[in-house]
Each structure stands twice: as structure tokens, then as C-alpha cells.
Specification:
It is a single chain. By secondary structure, the protein is an alpha+beta fold. A 5-stranded antiparallel beta sheet has the order 2-1-5-4-3, sandwiched between helices.
């Protein structure tokens, strides 16, 4: 979806995909008409970002919810850049928007899963850690694991070297003794 504004901050053009998405006419969207579709919770932040960057004549990128043709709100990633005439005269902005609702939904689902995983590992009283084997680093350690090992959770990371040196008896784990 593409939009163009004039030097007065008012929008002067929207492409067909924008109008189709919004389910509105060009006349309805022109000027500041497009702002009628911005979600009330995002409205102030959205306009503040637009105006601040517009006055500074610098690129911007923001995310907000915009009402679609079906009346539901969709997350939009909107970026704009200043436009100039050949003689350097500031003409306004040109911008593009993408519907990123699927990304926001995925992020929310991942946050929910992470919360459930942390709650489950906490209530199970199990010491659990996750390692990135390829990059040889500890990704996550639950609080119970630190408690079992008698280490503060805010202390140094539970690296493979620390784990081997401080918690594994070399005679009990010959297969993993090698390496650092």
C-alpha cells in the first residue's frame, strides 16, 4: 500500500491496494481522512511520529493498527521518506505500508508459549536448561536449575565449561569430558 503527502502534511494520493484495504474512496482518505482508520489506542503515537519526522524531514517507520474494509483492525508497518523536487524544494513524503498482522499474531503466540513453558517448568520443580549446540552457548536456564546447583540466577552464565568444571565428576561422564 502506497501513500503520498504534500508539504502541508496532508495526504494527496493513495494507491489502489490502500483504498481496497481500507474500503474507502480516495476522497475519504485525502488530507487527514486516513487517520479515521487508525486504532484509537495508536492514534496519538502514530500522529506524533508522523508529525515529528515530517517537521524534521527524516525517514520514519512505525507500526499501528488500521481499520480494514471489513471493520477489523490489522497491524500495519508504515515507512515514509521525504520527497524533494530537482531544485531541492521539499514536496512532502512518500510511504509504503505492509499488513504485518500475521507477524504480530505469531509474536503473541510465542510470548504465550514462553509464558506457559516458564510456568510449567517452574511448577514442575525441574532444573531445565537449553543449549544452542551449533553456536556452543546456553540459551536459557530456569530458576530451579540455578537453585539446584546453588548458583545465583543473576550470576555468571551457566556455560558448558562452568557446568563441567563445577558440577560433573570426570569419572562419571567420560563421554563428555573432552573439549572445553
Amino acid at each position: 500500500m502506497i501513500w503520498v503527502s504534500g508539504a502541508d502534511k496532508n495526504c494527496v494520493w493513495f494507491n489502489r491496494p490502500w483504498l481496497k484495504f481500507a474500503g474507502r474512496s480516495m476522497a475519504q482518505e485525502l488530507g487527514d481522512g486516513w487517520t479515521e482508520g487508525v486504532h484509537p489506542d495508536d492514534y496519538e503515537r502514530c500522529l506524533e511520529t508522523y508529525v515529528d519526522h515530517f517537521e524534521a524531514r527524516i525517514e520514519f517507520r512505525m507500526q499501528y493498527r488500521l481499520r480494514g474494509h471489513d471493520g477489523g483492525y490489522r497491524w500495519i508497518d508504515d515507512s515514509g521518506i521525504p520527497r524533494y523536487a530537482r531544485d531541492g524544494t521539499f514536496l512532502g513524503y512518500i510511504g509504503s505500508c505492509m499488513d504485518i498482522s500475521h507477524l504480530k499474531e505469531t509474536e503473541a503466540a510465542l510470548r504465550e508459549r514462553d509464558t506457559r513453558l516458564r510456568q510449567a517448568t517452574s511448577s514442575a520443580k525441574l532444573g531445565i536448561y537449553e543449549r544452542d549446540i551449533k553456536n556452543d552457548r546456553t540459551v536459557w536456564v530456569n530458576d530451579r536449575m540455578y537453585e539446584i546447583l546453588g548458583r545465583p540466577a543473576q550470576g555468571s552464565p551457566l556455560s558448558r565449561t562452568v557446568f563441567r568444571r563445577e558440577y560433573l565428576h570426570p569419572d562419571r561422564c567420560p563421554r563428555i569430558r573432552g573439549g572445553s
